[in-house]
């Protein structure tokens, strides 16, 4: 990656996300091939290849982020845990509507991530 190719932080992040998706799909295809190479194919068709998997659309001319048909693991901005969003956070004592949300409340400090 050259500096002239990705000049802003957003472009670098977008490109890194795009590379991660490509690597994920390649690994997925490799696992699929390894799992199906030992098993006979019932319908006689080849396993799905990377070319036929189109889960991301990337439009660099509009400088937009890639969009995905699959959701990444969400991060809650209330408790900073992964697996849910803030409206569904287990720390919520009751479900609040946007109108009753206290805009002056301080967010929780970041917690160390569980590995």
From TrEMBL:
Region of interest (Disordered), residue spans: 91-115
Keyword Plastid part of the UniProt annotation: no
Claim: Metal-binding is one of the keywords in the record: yes
InterPro entries membership: Znf_CCHC, Znf_CCHC_sf
PROSITE patterns linked to this entry: ZF_CCHC (PS50158)
Domain spans labelled CCHC-type: 76-90
Record key words, sorted: Metal-binding, Zinc, Zinc-finger
GO molecular function: nucleic acid binding; zinc ion binding
Protein name: CCHC-type domain-containing protein
């Amino acid at each position: 990656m050259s500096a002239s190719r990705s000049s802003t932080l957003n472009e670098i992040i977008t490109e890194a996300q795009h590379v991660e998706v490509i690597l994920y799909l390649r690994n997925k295809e490799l696992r699929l091939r390894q799992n199906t190479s030992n098993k006979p194919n019932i319908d006689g068709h080849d396993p799905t290849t990377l070319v036929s998997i189109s889960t991301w659309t990337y439009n660099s001319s509009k400088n937009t982020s890639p969009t995905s048909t699959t959701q990444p693991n969400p991060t809650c901005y209330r408790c900073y845990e992964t697996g849910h969003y803030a409206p569904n956070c287990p720390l919520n004592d009751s479900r609040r509507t946007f109108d009753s949300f206290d805009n002056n409340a301080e967010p929780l400090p970041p917690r160390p991530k569980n590995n």
